[in-house]
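Here's what a typical entry looks like (HTTM-like domain-containing protein):
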Amino acid sequence: MLGTYFNQFTDAISSGWNQFWFQRESPKTVSCLRIVVGAVALIYALTFTSELAIWFADGGVLPVDRTYRLTGAADPSARVFYWSIFYFARNSMQLYVLHAVGLISILLFATGLQTRITSIIATVFVLSYAERAPMLMGVLEPLLCPVMLYLCLAPCGAYFSVDAWLRRRKGDTLEVPASFTSHLATRLIQVHVVAFYWMMAFAKLGNPVWWNGEAMWWLIAQPDNRLVDLTFLGGSEGSRLIVFAWSHMVVFFELAFGLLIWFRIWRPLLTTLAVFHWTGLGLVTGNWEFAILMIGLSLAFAPWESLEIASQDSASSQQQESPAQEPINAGV
């Protein structure tokens, strides 16, 4: 009996593992994610435009040699490696030529033109922006770069893209078949997003200001990057209680999202709550690109399967109701 139990146990684990990773899925989800990620990547690259030469040219703040010294890459014993295509550009002209190529490739990726090629080129450029000066990285790059790498694995230009429009113009109206790489890319993004949620939540749990509820006030009070001024919430006892409750709700939501998002019944609710969660944090902190990316990546969990299930349920209910509405002698 014990041997039978362990056989069933291992079979259940292996079947669950295979069902989690090794399925076929429609490319609609990754195509939708391509638009969101491509738009955020384009905004991210555009932020370098005005000060590209000031930062990265030979006479700038962070020329290549200084970046090597600061990161430790110049020391062979340090075993630190950073690579960027912008390391090959030394003057302003070379920097802006590469920058223009990068912007065009990211734009083509976002619109879905020759996506199999432009996804790889765009990912190389986004990684190059991040790796050119790692000391300038914030919270956006550790999430944006891996997600773009995951999308390179999937046919993310199959829908909602210029490639799909060109395919329809040629008369090809067939649905793009479900593929293993679409499912794998979606799963990798889901796991990465959940890990990011829990990383942020556990980091907050290690900080006393999140336990006593003062953390959101600290974010509201800083005047540098915020998009809205909510300092009036510190004016009365009741409004301060709102700020304290907001602090605790931020931690609770990030912990709950990482756990409950794997249950299909919770996904539409958590995806909706993520919009309000990240909109509020984006307005307060000024990290609106990161907020848009987190809202968009929440769509990796729910939308297409929810719409398809709802449409199938409505279609089956209509099919069940239609025979009952026919006259009894309709077939005579």
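Residues 25-163 form one domain.

More examples are in the samples folder.
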